[in-house]
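User: C-alpha cells for Adenylate/guanylate cyclase domain-containing protein, please.
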Amino acid sequence: MAERNYTRQLATIISIDAVGFSRLMGIDDELAVAAFEERRDIIAGSCGAFGGRTFGDAGDSIMAEFGNPIEALRAAFDFQARIVALNAAVAEDMRMPFRAGINTGDVIVREGRLYGDDVNIAARLQEFAPHDGVAISATTWHHVRDKTAAVFTDLGEFSLKNIALPVHVLIAGRGGNGSAAAVSFASIPIAPGHYGPVAKGPPAIAVLPFQGNGSEPDVGYMADGIAEDIIYGLSNTRWLSVIAKGSSFQFRDDSLGTKLIGNALGARYIVSGTLARSDRQIRLNASLTDTSNGRLVWSQRFDRDLVDIFSLRDQIGSEIVSILDKEVDRAEQARTFQVPWESLETWQLVRRGRWHMNRRTRRDTEIALDFFDKGYRDDPNSSAVLNELAWWYFWRAWLRFGDSDDLEKVETLARKALLMDSLDARPHAYLGAADIMRGLPALAAEHLAEAIHINPSFAFARSAMGSAHLLLGDAADAIPFFLDTERLSPFDLYRFHNLGELAAAYCFVEDWPAAIATAERSLNLSPSYFYARFLKIGALMRSGRRDEAARELDIFMTRHPDFSEQRIRWIPFVDPSRNNFLIANFDRAKSAA
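Assistant: Done. Predicted C-alpha cells:
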C-alpha cells in the first residue's frame, strides 16, 4: 500500500474573488494588476492578524484557511472594510471590490494546499456574495450566529455545481456601525429554498425599494413612497400574494441579483426601479422580473412633470399597479400550459380559463367556462373562481344585451364571492356592472364607488363608474373616469369598449372632434364594434363632414346589415332623450345618403 502523504482536518475556508478584474485589465492592465496586488496584501494582512493564512492564489482569486469560523468571519469583515475605504479614494470606474464565501467542513491537507468538497463549496459561495460582501454556508453560520454582532440574510438552499447535496446559503453583514454594504442586508425570516416543496397557490411578488438617482433630498423619499404605493395597490388585487414592505425593503442593495433576492423572499416576481429628478421633471424606470428564470417580463419608463408630489405619487403608483396586475396575470396564464390538465390547481385553472377568455372567440369562451366550472367543483368557496364565473356570465349578458338569467347568476356569484372575501373589489364592480345593464345606474355607482375605494387601480371599476355617470346624464363627470381607465390600463383587452363609452361622452358634451378621434381609436382595436362606428357617423355629420359620414355608413351597413335603432334604445339612459339624441345624429347620415 502506498504511504499516505496527506492529513484530514476540520477547517474554515474563505474564497475571495476580485469583482470586475477583467474589465479593469481591459482598461489599464498595469493599473489593474497593481490594484489587485495592493488589495491582496490587505487581505493577507487581515487573515494573518486573525489567525489565518492565505494559500492557492490563482489569477484574481485568493483562498484562506482558518481554524476558527468566528475569526474567519472577523477577518473577512476587516479586509472588506479596508478595501471599501481604499476604493472610495479612487474613481468609481476604477474601483476593485471583492466578494468572499466562507464554509466550514472537512478538508484534505497536502503540502500546504487544501482539497475537498468543502473547499469547493467556499468557492461557489462567493458567487452569491454582493460586491464588498460575504456569503456563508449554514455550517459556518451555526458556529458564528450567537458569537458575533453580524446580521444574516437567509437565501435558502441551492444546488451548487459539482456538489452532491444542496447547500444552505446566507449573506453575512457587519452589525452596528459597519460598512454600508454590510448593513444593507438585515435579517429576514427564512424563506423556502429551491429544495423545499413547491409552494401551493398563486405566486408571490416583491417590490424592492426604488433607487433614487440625483442629489436632491426628496428623490429618495419619493422613490420609497412610490414603491410603498405599489405594494399597497398590489395587495388590493387579492389574487396575488405580496411580500410585506418590512421584508422586501431590506434589499436596498440589488447587487445580489433578482434571482437570489426572489429566493430569499419566496417571491416569483420582483419589481424594481430607479427614480431621477431634473429641474421640474421626474423620470421613473420600472421593471418586472420572473425570478424563476431571470426573464424580464415588463419594463417601462414614466416621464412626468413634477407638480404636487403626493398626487404624482398616487398617479404613477396606481398606473404601475394596474399594469403589473395584468402582466403577472399574463405570465401566469402562459405558465399553466406547462402543467398537465389533471395537475392544475384551482388558481391555475382560473389563469388558464382567463387565457381562453382573452381570445374572445365563441369556442374559447366555452373552453374557459369548462376551466372555471372545474375550479368551482374543486373549490366551490374560492373567491377567485367565483369572481371569474361572475365575469364570464356578465360578458355573456353583455353580448346578449342584458340577458336577465345571466345577470342573476352574476349577482349570485358576486355576492358569494363577497362572503368569502369582503375586501375584494371585484365582486363590488361586477354587482355595479350588472346594475348598469339592468338600468339602475345610481345603485351601480354605489357598488362601483366601493370597488374603487378598495382598489383605486381597478381600471374596470373606473370605466364602469364612467358608464354609470353617462347613463345618469353626467357626461362631463364621466369623462375623467374613462380617461383614468386609459391611463391605468393602456393595453387592456376591452379597451375598445372604454373608448366607445368615452366617444359617447364626447358626443353628449358636443366635442365632435374628440368624439370622432376616440371612436376611431376604438375601431382600430375592434373594427366590428358597432357602437363606436355608430357614434363616429353621427359625430361626422354634426361636424359637417358628410362625405366621410357616408363612407362610414356604407361600412356600417355592410358589417351590420340587421342593425335596428332598438339596439340604441336598449342602452338604459335614465333620460330617454339621450337615446333620441344619438339616434338623431345617426339618422342625419341615413337621410343624406
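User: Anything notable?

Assistant: The longest helix spans residues 309-335.
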